[in-house]
Design a protein that fits this description.
single chain, alpha/beta, Rossmann fold, 9-stranded mixed beta sheet, two-stranded antiparallel ribbon, 22 helices, 9% strand, rod-shaped, Guanylate-bd_N, nucleotide-binding
Amino acid sequence: MGKGGIPEIKLLNVGTRLHDIRKLKSDCCKTFTRGKNPLLCGLLASSSNLTDQEYSSTSLPSIVSPPSRSRAQSYAFDNYAAFSGERLSCRSEMRIFSPVAVLSILLSFFASGSFSIENFRQAFPIIEPDPGHTKLRLSREGLEAIERITNPIAAVAVIGPYRSGKSFLLNQLLSLSCYEGFGVGHMRDTKTKGIWVWGAPVELDIDGVKTSVFYLDTEGFESIGKSNVYDDRIFALATVMSSVLIYNLPETIREADISRLSFAVELAEEFYGRFGQDVAFEPAKLLWLIQRDFLQGKSVQEMVDEALRRVPNTNGDKNIDQVNQIRDSLAIMGDNSTAFSLPQPHLLRTKLCDLKDDELDSIYVKKRDQLKTVVSSIIRPKIVQGKSLNGKEFVSFLEQILEALNKGEIPSTGSLVEVFNKGILERCLKLYSSRMSNLGLPTSEESLQRAHEGSSKAAMEAFDEQHFGRHHAKKSAEQLVEEVEKVYKNFVLANELQSSKLCEALYIRCEEKMDQLQVLRLPSMAKFNAGFLQCDQSFERECVGPSKSNYEMRMMKMLGKSKSLFIKEYNHRLFNWLVAFSLVMVVVGRFIIKFILIEIGAWILFIFLETYTRMFWTSESLYYNPVWHGIVRTWEAVVYSPVLDLDRWAIPLGAIATILVLYWRCYGRRKRSRWALPLYNNQKDQRRSE
């Protein structure tokens, strides 16, 4: 005790045990009733309420010892007001401490530089869980302990179920007590949250290179209140970070342990690949550490080899295939794995922290020392992309891996990887189908092929971005290619069907058009040729797809036959029309209009047509006569032109002509004008006048 009963501050240092702090707290309570140093008592009270894990990772304020401000300081300041109000529950009538004393203590607290990390011989968190225990985040306090290292770095990580003794094992490897090293808990809940690092690396000479070795403690999996995805991220991150991965298992190897390790390696490889792109994943040295008490029977190496051996599957059982696939995925670890057994250190596991080496099981101590040698022999600097990493490079690598790990959607070990990839496969197929559907059918085979290639590429890129596991994804990728081809074949068939329907409709429309041209009231070669050309152009423009070539051949045959038939019928129909027309004009010129020249012209045409065919026995020869060609040109000019289609307007024009003739017949005679051309009426009028 100091003067006035105040505890000696110099007695409190980083190595001070919790029971010493609790004793000082009791002494402080006694002195506090006399108004002595309440702030120090508050700090001691907060520190004494910490768990072993929390205390082992903290240091007291500068008035206690120089190291950095840690969780003990935070607890002290946060609880100081409540502590001073409660007066340590010692007496309700305690006096309020002097403000001058508080100010003096705080000034010394800041002046001492207590907020800078100077003592690294403690555990620091480097990876912490978010409040929902689903994702991970970095802790700058722990990263600063790593960034200061300029040598190549190696990391030894211990993974395994919670309450399996990982923290105690690390303390044993570091030759630290529970009060100095990683916190060890004896309660049923897990003590380590996230990933912790021992701030003081072990310096080793590896192949002539001075290497700083960090030891990592990981949060145990299978504890309550966490998601499987969180456990898998911890497991995978430890796999990526470490140079040596110690898989700490109690008593034996379960199938679930193999499956979880396989999944973690697959996950690490996946996100390492996303970070390093085409750089191959370089796995850590794997050490199977089996904690067991029985020494008879198979060795641990035989146990591990047997557990990882493929299971014969003569009947093609899918479940056995899955078991073998899990073992195949561990092939990446290859010769990098070894096995080691470690017996229990003592029967009283809750008292391990209070036992010295001479009180532990002698076999355990011997095997522990052997384990230290084995671990030291397999440690190698962490290599990324063929280069060893120093502290800053290791932290940068960790930041990028963690970002990829948190950003990516990953399955959990509770769900099959194939099921996860199947969902991605279905989404990629949907993407492919939607892009293909936007094309619109029918279309040309070249356009369909280009759309298929583009959509297939987009689907594969989406799958590459979202899939999980390189080994598992290979099978899923092959399945995606097969499914895409199936969907593409359906699109090809649909395109053929739609093309056939469209071209058939166009063919029928042209066929009907040709049939209509065959039965024109006034046959016109010009009109037929115009309709023929319109049909051919519309078919060529609108008919698309694989059926176009077949229908083009049918179209050419149909149009050729229609044109030949029209030409053949055209001359006959035109001949008959001209014969009928000449007779009609004879009647019109003689009895209706009574125009002599019209009647004479009509008779000449009629006589020519009839006598020519009689003289040459057939009308076929007429069609090659130049006179006939002249008649045809005149007919075509009258019947059809871009301005007037007489076939369409024949009836209206005939009605108009009839009206004009009737009008002339009724009212034209009353006029006494003389005609320039001879009319039958003029002759009669002359006779009457005589």
